[in-house]
Amino acid sequence: MGIFKIPEHKKSGPLAGKRIAILATDGVEEVELTSPRKALEDAGADVDLVSPEDHIHAGEIRSWNHTGWGKKFCVDVRLTKADPASYDALHLPGGVMNPDHLRQNPDAIEFVRHFFKTGKPVSAICHAPWLLIEAGIVKGRHMTSWPSLHTDLRNAGAHWFDKEVVVDGNLITSRKPDDLPAFNKEIVQQFSVMKIAA
């Protein structure tokens, strides 16, 4: 008698079959990681948390929850092992420490640049546009961010707007946790119309 194998559950939704990377490290704002990740997974996407090795402790990174340390999250793929070509889209959560660490990491900057070189969608919220400035891709772009970054973005050549969500081609930006409902809806919509990675 053969062994009965339960068929694997196939994901459904507008992002079914798509693989999305979230690039983050210690100090990532907790809700800016968890809320978009849930929205993407609920829409059918496979989502990997990618992080540089220098801030991984026992396979995890620590989040920041408004005014103090938050939950720990398991890292799915170490940055040095992550192939950006295998992902269909990229989400960059904020927090202050998280993008400040990442923008000093050459591997993180190259990972981000891949998505712009290939025209894949990228979402960034709060302080995450610091990474985009470092990657040299904000000039001429319509964007938003945490308000204190508006001078940095304008100095780098971006057109900054005080709106909950701004879409410019493959780039979706947002200001803060209060904007997450609108931001999540937009990233699911924008990510769903992009081609699946080869």
Write the layout of secondary structure elements.
Blueprint: E1 19-23, E2 28-29, H1 30-42, E3 46-51, E4 60-65, E5 68-74, E6 77-78, E7 89-92, H2 97-102, H3 106-117, E8 122-125, H4 129-134, E9 142-143, H5 150-155, E10 159-160, E11 165-168, E12 171-174, H6 180-192
Parallel strand pairs: 1-3, 1-7, 2-4, 3-6, 7-8, 8-12, 9-10
Antiparallel strand pairs: 4-5, 11-12
Helix pairs in contact: 1-6
Please give a structural write-up:
By secondary structure, the protein is α/β, with parallel strands linked by helices. It has a single domain, classed as Class I glutamine amidotransferase (GATase) domain (Rossmann fold, 3-Layer(aba) Sandwich), CATH 3.40.50. Helix content is about 30%, strand content about 25%. The protein has six helices and twelve strands. The chain has helices spanning about 30-40, 95-100, 105-115, 130-135, 150-155, 180-190; strands spanning about 20-25, 30, 45-50, 60-65, 70-75, 75-80, 90, 120-125, 140-145, 160, 165-170, 170-175. The chain has a seven-stranded mixed sheet with strand order 6-3-1-7-8-12-11, with helices on both faces. The longest helix is centred in the first third of the chain and has 13 residues, at about 30-40. The chain starts with 18 loop residues before the first strand and ends in a 6-residue tail after the last helix.
